[in-house]
Write a structure and sequence with these properties.
Elements: H1 5-12, E1 18-22, H2 28-42, E2 48-51, H3 61-64, E3 77-80, E4 96-101, E5 111-114, H4 121-131, H5 138-151, H6 162-173, H7 178-186, H8 191-202, E6 205-207, E7 212-217, H9 219-225, H10 237-240, E8 247-255, E9 258-265, H11 271-276, E10 281-282, E11 286-291, H12 295-310
Parallel strand pairs: 1-2, 1-3, 3-4, 4-5, 7-8
Antiparallel strand pairs: 6-7, 8-9, 9-11, 10-11
Helix pairs in contact: 1-4, 2-4, 2-5, 4-5, 5-6, 5-7
The structure holds manganese (II) ion.
């Protein structure tokens, strides 16, 4: 059943404890949504345990390692920032009681608060915390602002809107360390990350007369650089920064002959429609799919799908 903001705010008070799940290969929004909700609910005597089948990436541990949450086995489950059960990885079979998300969401859940037009799940968690009348501490503000900054790429995605900026302004007033968080997540890169981006740029491949830009990162590249998944978030920025293309494709071979492909569109084209051909999905301007193929073959298939999308028969 779909709930309004106020109804979900009330529903969150209805259970004595929660496990809060977030999606595999977690990004900042997933991590911060789960930890912020857990921290806020704990402040009113509802213990929570954030859970993911993959570890929290290095980049976010400065905030999450200050927090520890006791296990809550058997507690009702909340899923945040997770578009489908499959995205929970090894937790895909859990019964989800509450689902809070901003994707085109396909999760089965007893109660859902899904707002596809919201910039980030952190923004929704922020609205819920406010609707519940809870105090936003500086620690909570830092978590939520980090989620907002990472999912909007520092307020540059097409999903950024007045509501996201209003949430940001209020979080700044609540004490979020806005400059440090923006620099850390939207400017600074590790030398290892620069090396990954160089490989992607060296693989740039233009098709459809320059309207489509693809690139790839192979499993061999990953082994050679010793690169863990944590450094691979947001690789789309490498194609996003190129002026001209209407569709950007980033192929990452996560395991030999298995690729995770993400597609960005910049001029109102539908990335989810392209990824849908391969069983994937997402937002209109950013979507993804997984495919059993080597990276060169995967890139070619997506370039063909992009070409067919641009010029239907
Ligand atoms: Mn998100």
């Amino acid at each position: 059943m779909d709930l309004s903001l106020q109804e979900m705010a009330e529903k969150l008070r209805a259970y004595p404890a929660y496990r809060i799940y977030f999606h595999k290969t977690p990004d900042g929004d997933a991590v911060m949504s789960a930890y912020a909700l857990a921290l806020a609910l704990r402040s009113i005597g509802i213990p929570c345990e954030p859970l993911c089948c993959d570890p929290v990436p290095d980049n976010y541990r400065d905030l999450t390692e200050q927090l520890s949450f006791a296990p809550q086995p058997g507690a009702p489950a909340i899923a945040v920032d997770t578009a489908s059960a499959k995205r929970l990885g090894s937790y895909a079979d859990e019964h989800i009681t509450l689902c809070i998300d901003h994707h085109e969401n396909q999760m089965e859940a007893d109660f859902r608060y899904v707002v596809p037009e919201a910039s980030s799940c952190a923004e929704l968690i922020y609205r819920l915390i406010r609707a519940m009348g809870l105090t936003v501490t500086q620690q909570l503000a830092d978590l939520l602002y980090t989620g907002l900054v990472t999912d909007t790429q520092c307020f540059r995605t097409y999903s950024t809107n007045a509501a996201s900026l209003e949430a940001a302004a209020t979080l700044a007033r609540d004490g979020a360390d806005i400059v440090r968080i923006a620099r850390r997540h939207a400017l600074e890169k590790t030398p290892e990350r620069i090396a990954v981006e160089q490989i992607l740029m060296n693989s740039f491949h233009y098709t459809c007369g320059g309207r489509v830009l693809g690139c790839m990162f192979t499993h061999d590249d990953m082994r050679r650089l010793g690169t863990e998944d944590a450094r691979m978030e947001g690789l789309n920025l490498v194609v996003d920064q190129v002026r001209g293309p209407e569709i950007g494709i980033v192929v990452r071979e996560t395991h030999p002959m298995h690729c995770r492909v993400s597609v960005r569109t910049y001029t109102g084209l539908n990335a989810a429609a392209i990824c849908g051909r391969f069983g994937g999905g997402g937002h209109a301007d950013r979507a993804g799919a997984e495919i059993d193929a080597g990276p060169a073959a995967a890139l070619r298939l997506f370039e063909e799908a992009a070409a067919a999308y641009l010029q239907p028969d």
